[in-house]
UniProtKB/TrEMBL annotation:
Any one annotated GO CC term: cytoplasm
Name this protein carries in UniProt: Sulfotransferase
Phylogenetic lineage: Eukaryota, Metazoa, Chordata, Craniata, Vertebrata
Any one GO molecular-function label of the UniProt entry: sulfotransferase activity
UniProt EC number: 2.8.2.-
UniProt KW keywords: Cytoplasm, Transferase
PANTHER family registered for this protein in UniProt: SULFOTRANSFERASE SULT
Domain of life: Eukaryota
Length: 304
Protein backbone atom coordinates (compact mmCIF):
# COMPACT_ATOMS: atom_id res chain seq x y z
CA UNK A 1 0.00 0.00 0.00
CA UNK A 2 1.98 2.97 -1.33
CA UNK A 3 1.05 6.55 -0.54
CA UNK A 4 3.44 8.06 -3.10
CA UNK A 5 1.93 5.89 -5.86
CA UNK A 6 -1.50 7.28 -4.94
CA UNK A 7 -0.11 10.81 -5.17
CA UNK A 8 1.00 10.23 -8.75
CA UNK A 9 -2.66 9.75 -9.75
CA UNK A 10 -3.88 12.61 -7.54
CA UNK A 11 -5.36 15.77 -9.04
CA UNK A 12 -3.80 18.73 -7.17
CA UNK A 13 -6.82 20.84 -8.09
CA UNK A 14 -9.02 18.60 -5.91
CA UNK A 15 -7.10 19.48 -2.72
CA UNK A 16 -8.82 22.01 -0.52
CA UNK A 17 -8.22 23.06 3.04
CA UNK A 18 -10.21 20.96 5.50
CA UNK A 19 -13.13 22.17 7.56
CA UNK A 20 -13.51 21.27 11.23
CA UNK A 21 -16.30 18.88 12.27
CA UNK A 22 -16.90 18.02 15.93
CA UNK A 23 -16.93 14.41 17.13
CA UNK A 24 -17.97 14.07 20.79
CA UNK A 25 -17.07 17.73 21.26
CA UNK A 26 -13.60 17.41 19.68
CA UNK A 27 -12.96 19.28 16.39
CA UNK A 28 -11.46 16.94 13.79
CA UNK A 29 -10.66 17.25 10.09
CA UNK A 30 -13.88 16.77 8.12
CA UNK A 31 -12.50 13.62 6.45
CA UNK A 32 -11.51 12.11 9.82
CA UNK A 33 -14.94 12.90 11.27
CA UNK A 34 -16.65 11.31 8.23
CA UNK A 35 -14.70 8.08 8.84
CA UNK A 36 -15.16 7.98 12.61
CA UNK A 37 -17.05 4.67 12.62
CA UNK A 38 -14.35 3.05 10.49
CA UNK A 39 -11.71 4.35 12.88
CA UNK A 40 -13.57 3.16 15.97
CA UNK A 41 -13.83 -0.34 14.57
CA UNK A 42 -10.10 -0.57 13.78
CA UNK A 43 -8.70 -3.88 15.05
CA UNK A 44 -5.52 -3.28 17.02
CA UNK A 45 -3.29 -6.30 17.65
CA UNK A 46 -1.58 -7.10 20.98
CA UNK A 47 1.89 -6.44 19.56
CA UNK A 48 0.96 -3.07 18.02
CA UNK A 49 2.91 -0.07 19.29
CA UNK A 50 1.14 3.29 19.09
CA UNK A 51 2.97 6.63 19.10
CA UNK A 52 0.51 9.33 20.09
CA UNK A 53 0.94 13.07 20.51
CA UNK A 54 -0.80 16.37 20.21
CA UNK A 55 0.34 17.56 16.74
CA UNK A 56 3.80 19.18 16.53
CA UNK A 57 4.99 17.85 19.89
CA UNK A 58 7.93 15.77 18.64
CA UNK A 59 6.00 12.99 16.90
CA UNK A 60 8.42 12.45 14.01
CA UNK A 61 11.41 12.59 16.37
CA UNK A 62 10.05 9.76 18.52
CA UNK A 63 9.01 7.79 15.43
CA UNK A 64 12.57 7.90 14.09
CA UNK A 65 14.03 6.93 17.49
CA UNK A 66 11.65 3.96 17.73
CA UNK A 67 12.38 2.85 14.15
CA UNK A 68 16.13 3.01 14.84
CA UNK A 69 15.69 0.99 18.05
CA UNK A 70 13.57 -1.64 16.31
CA UNK A 71 16.12 -2.00 13.49
CA UNK A 72 19.16 -1.96 15.82
CA UNK A 73 20.56 1.22 14.27
CA UNK A 74 20.41 0.00 10.66
CA UNK A 75 20.12 3.30 8.78
CA UNK A 76 19.44 1.58 5.46
CA UNK A 77 16.36 -0.11 6.91
CA UNK A 78 15.23 3.19 8.40
CA UNK A 79 15.60 4.76 4.93
CA UNK A 80 13.35 2.08 3.35
CA UNK A 81 10.47 4.57 2.97
CA UNK A 82 9.33 8.02 4.12
CA UNK A 83 8.10 8.22 7.71
CA UNK A 84 4.43 8.43 6.68
CA UNK A 85 4.73 5.00 5.03
CA UNK A 86 6.90 3.36 7.69
CA UNK A 87 4.54 4.31 10.52
CA UNK A 88 0.96 4.84 9.25
CA UNK A 89 -1.08 7.72 10.66
CA UNK A 90 -4.35 5.98 11.49
CA UNK A 91 -6.56 9.09 11.86
CA UNK A 92 -5.63 10.54 8.45
CA UNK A 93 -8.07 10.05 5.56
CA UNK A 94 -6.77 11.83 2.44
CA UNK A 95 -8.71 12.21 -0.80
CA UNK A 96 -8.64 9.12 -3.01
CA UNK A 97 -6.62 7.61 -4.65
CA UNK A 98 -4.23 8.34 -1.75
CA UNK A 99 -4.64 5.46 0.75
CA UNK A 100 -5.78 6.25 4.28
CA UNK A 101 -3.61 5.58 7.30
CA UNK A 102 -6.03 2.82 8.29
CA UNK A 103 -5.67 1.08 4.92
CA UNK A 104 -1.89 1.29 5.18
CA UNK A 105 -1.98 -0.08 8.75
CA UNK A 106 -4.25 -2.97 7.77
CA UNK A 107 -1.89 -3.91 4.91
CA UNK A 108 1.15 -4.03 7.25
CA UNK A 109 2.55 -7.23 8.72
CA UNK A 110 2.88 -7.54 12.49
CA UNK A 111 4.38 -6.19 14.63
CA UNK A 112 3.13 -2.74 13.57
CA UNK A 113 4.13 0.70 14.78
CA UNK A 114 1.33 3.22 14.27
CA UNK A 115 0.74 6.93 14.83
CA UNK A 116 -2.23 8.94 16.11
CA UNK A 117 -3.09 12.45 17.28
CA UNK A 118 -6.42 11.40 18.79
CA UNK A 119 -7.35 12.49 22.31
CA UNK A 120 -7.62 9.60 24.72
CA UNK A 121 -11.44 9.33 24.57
CA UNK A 122 -11.52 8.94 20.75
CA UNK A 123 -8.85 6.25 20.45
CA UNK A 124 -10.21 3.03 18.86
CA UNK A 125 -11.27 0.83 21.82
CA UNK A 126 -9.30 -2.17 20.53
CA UNK A 127 -6.03 -0.49 21.62
CA UNK A 128 -7.26 -0.65 25.23
CA UNK A 129 -8.76 -4.13 24.81
CA UNK A 130 -5.49 -5.53 23.42
CA UNK A 131 -3.44 -3.73 26.11
CA UNK A 132 -1.18 -2.23 23.41
CA UNK A 133 1.90 -0.29 24.43
CA UNK A 134 1.58 3.44 23.78
CA UNK A 135 4.26 6.14 23.76
CA UNK A 136 2.86 9.63 24.34
CA UNK A 137 4.89 12.82 23.91
CA UNK A 138 3.84 16.17 25.35
CA UNK A 139 5.36 19.58 24.60
CA UNK A 140 4.89 22.84 26.47
CA UNK A 141 1.82 24.71 25.29
CA UNK A 142 3.58 27.86 24.10
CA UNK A 143 6.12 26.18 21.80
CA UNK A 144 3.52 23.63 20.69
CA UNK A 145 1.14 26.40 19.66
CA UNK A 146 3.80 28.28 17.66
CA UNK A 147 4.88 25.13 15.83
CA UNK A 148 1.26 24.17 15.10
CA UNK A 149 0.55 27.63 13.65
CA UNK A 150 3.44 27.34 11.18
CA UNK A 151 2.35 23.78 10.33
CA UNK A 152 -1.13 25.06 9.43
CA UNK A 153 0.48 27.63 7.13
CA UNK A 154 2.54 25.07 5.19
CA UNK A 155 0.14 22.09 5.17
CA UNK A 156 -2.41 22.87 2.47
CA UNK A 157 -4.83 20.21 3.73
CA UNK A 158 -5.19 21.74 7.22
CA UNK A 159 -7.89 24.32 8.01
CA UNK A 160 -7.05 27.95 7.22
CA UNK A 161 -5.15 29.25 10.30
CA UNK A 162 -5.95 32.97 9.93
CA UNK A 163 -3.39 35.37 11.37
CA UNK A 164 -1.33 34.62 14.49
CA UNK A 165 -3.70 36.38 16.93
CA UNK A 166 -6.75 34.56 15.51
CA UNK A 167 -4.94 31.23 15.66
CA UNK A 168 -3.85 31.88 19.25
CA UNK A 169 -7.43 32.54 20.36
CA UNK A 170 -8.77 29.44 18.58
CA UNK A 171 -5.96 27.32 20.02
CA UNK A 172 -6.61 28.43 23.60
CA UNK A 173 -10.33 27.59 23.42
CA UNK A 174 -9.67 24.28 21.65
CA UNK A 175 -11.38 25.29 18.40
CA UNK A 176 -8.65 23.57 16.45
CA UNK A 177 -7.89 20.21 14.84
CA UNK A 178 -7.65 17.42 17.44
CA UNK A 179 -9.12 19.72 20.04
CA UNK A 180 -7.86 21.35 23.20
CA UNK A 181 -4.15 20.95 24.00
CA UNK A 182 -5.04 21.11 27.71
CA UNK A 183 -7.58 18.27 27.47
CA UNK A 184 -5.24 16.21 25.27
CA UNK A 185 -2.16 16.26 27.49
CA UNK A 186 -4.20 15.86 30.66
CA UNK A 187 -6.35 13.01 29.30
CA UNK A 188 -3.31 10.97 28.27
CA UNK A 189 -1.51 11.80 31.53
CA UNK A 190 -4.41 10.37 33.54
CA UNK A 191 -4.70 7.31 31.27
CA UNK A 192 -1.10 6.27 32.02
CA UNK A 193 -2.19 5.10 35.48
CA UNK A 194 -4.50 2.50 33.89
CA UNK A 195 -2.67 1.43 30.73
CA UNK A 196 0.89 0.65 29.52
CA UNK A 197 1.71 4.22 28.45
CA UNK A 198 5.19 5.77 28.45
CA UNK A 199 4.59 9.53 28.87
CA UNK A 200 7.51 11.62 27.65
CA UNK A 201 8.17 15.36 27.59
CA UNK A 202 9.69 17.11 24.58
CA UNK A 203 11.74 19.37 26.87
CA UNK A 204 13.26 16.35 28.66
CA UNK A 205 14.20 14.87 25.28
CA UNK A 206 15.95 18.11 24.26
CA UNK A 207 17.73 18.33 27.61
CA UNK A 208 19.03 14.75 27.73
CA UNK A 209 18.25 12.62 24.65
CA UNK A 210 20.32 9.67 25.95
CA UNK A 211 18.23 9.43 29.14
CA UNK A 212 14.93 9.55 27.25
CA UNK A 213 16.01 7.08 24.54
CA UNK A 214 16.99 4.65 27.33
CA UNK A 215 13.46 5.01 28.74
CA UNK A 216 11.97 4.17 25.33
CA UNK A 217 14.22 1.12 24.89
CA UNK A 218 13.38 -0.15 28.38
CA UNK A 219 9.64 0.36 27.74
CA UNK A 220 9.91 -1.64 24.51
CA UNK A 221 12.03 -4.35 26.14
CA UNK A 222 14.94 -3.72 23.77
CA UNK A 223 18.63 -3.90 24.62
CA UNK A 224 20.52 -0.67 24.11
CA UNK A 225 24.31 -1.06 24.10
CA UNK A 226 26.28 2.19 24.27
CA UNK A 227 27.44 2.25 20.61
CA UNK A 228 23.82 1.87 19.46
CA UNK A 229 22.66 4.64 21.81
CA UNK A 230 25.30 7.01 20.43
CA UNK A 231 24.31 6.14 16.86
CA UNK A 232 20.63 6.80 17.57
CA UNK A 233 21.38 10.14 19.26
CA UNK A 234 23.43 11.24 16.23
CA UNK A 235 20.89 10.00 13.68
CA UNK A 236 17.92 11.65 15.43
CA UNK A 237 19.47 15.06 16.10
CA UNK A 238 17.22 17.83 14.79
CA UNK A 239 19.81 19.01 12.24
CA UNK A 240 20.29 15.45 10.93
CA UNK A 241 16.57 14.77 10.65
CA UNK A 242 15.93 18.14 8.99
CA UNK A 243 18.27 16.98 6.19
CA UNK A 244 16.84 13.45 6.02
CA UNK A 245 14.27 13.16 3.19
CA UNK A 246 12.85 9.99 4.80
CA UNK A 247 11.95 12.05 7.91
CA UNK A 248 11.48 15.69 6.84
CA UNK A 249 8.35 15.29 4.63
CA UNK A 250 10.11 16.91 1.64
CA UNK A 251 9.07 13.88 -0.44
CA UNK A 252 5.50 15.20 -0.45
CA UNK A 253 4.66 17.64 -3.28
CA UNK A 254 4.43 21.37 -2.53
CA UNK A 255 0.68 21.40 -3.23
CA UNK A 256 0.32 19.32 -0.03
CA UNK A 257 3.15 20.65 2.14
CA UNK A 258 4.74 23.90 1.02
CA UNK A 259 8.15 24.04 2.68
CA UNK A 260 8.72 27.50 1.19
CA UNK A 261 6.02 28.86 3.50
CA UNK A 262 7.54 27.09 6.51
CA UNK A 263 9.64 23.91 6.67
CA UNK A 264 8.00 20.88 8.29
CA UNK A 265 11.05 20.75 10.59
CA UNK A 266 11.32 24.41 11.47
CA UNK A 267 13.44 25.02 14.60
CA UNK A 268 13.05 22.14 17.05
CA UNK A 269 13.95 24.30 20.03
CA UNK A 270 12.53 25.08 23.47
CA UNK A 271 11.60 28.73 24.04
CA UNK A 272 10.90 29.89 20.47
CA UNK A 273 7.53 31.12 21.77
CA UNK A 274 9.33 34.24 23.08
CA UNK A 275 9.63 35.40 19.44
CA UNK A 276 5.85 35.19 18.97
CA UNK A 277 3.99 35.89 22.21
CA UNK A 278 3.47 39.27 23.85
CA UNK A 279 3.93 39.50 27.64
CA UNK A 280 0.13 39.72 28.04
CA UNK A 281 -0.44 36.63 25.87
CA UNK A 282 2.22 34.69 27.75
CA UNK A 283 0.68 35.59 31.11
CA UNK A 284 -2.80 34.65 29.88
CA UNK A 285 -1.49 31.20 28.89
CA UNK A 286 0.23 30.78 32.28
CA UNK A 287 -3.12 31.51 33.98
CA UNK A 288 -4.91 28.98 31.76
CA UNK A 289 -2.29 26.32 32.59
CA UNK A 290 -2.80 26.98 36.30
CA UNK A 291 -6.57 26.56 35.93
CA UNK A 292 -6.84 23.72 33.41
CA UNK A 293 -3.97 21.53 34.63
CA UNK A 294 -4.66 22.13 38.34
CA UNK A 295 -4.45 19.00 40.47
CA UNK A 296 -3.12 16.85 37.62
CA UNK A 297 0.52 16.83 38.69
CA UNK A 298 1.49 17.88 35.15
CA UNK A 299 4.29 20.42 35.02
CA UNK A 300 5.73 21.85 31.80
CA UNK A 301 8.98 23.71 31.35
CA UNK A 302 8.67 26.73 29.06
CA UNK A 303 12.45 27.06 28.70
CA UNK A 304 15.62 25.08 29.41
Amino acid sequence: MNLLAGLEEFDPGSLKRSELVEVEGVPLLDTTAANQELLRSFKAQPDDLLICTYPKAGTTWVQEIVDMLQHRGDKQKCARAPMYERIPFIDLFPIKPIPSGLEMAEAMPSPRTLKSHLPVQLLPPSFWEQNCKIIYVARNVKDNMVSYFHFHRMNQGMPEPGNWDQFLENFLIGRITWGSWFDHVRGWWEAKDRHPILYLFYEDMKEDPAREIKKIAQFLGLELPNPLLKEIIEHTKFETMKDNPMANYCTLPAFIMDHNLSPFMRKGTVGDWKEHLTVAQSEKIDDLCSQLLAGSGLDFRMEL
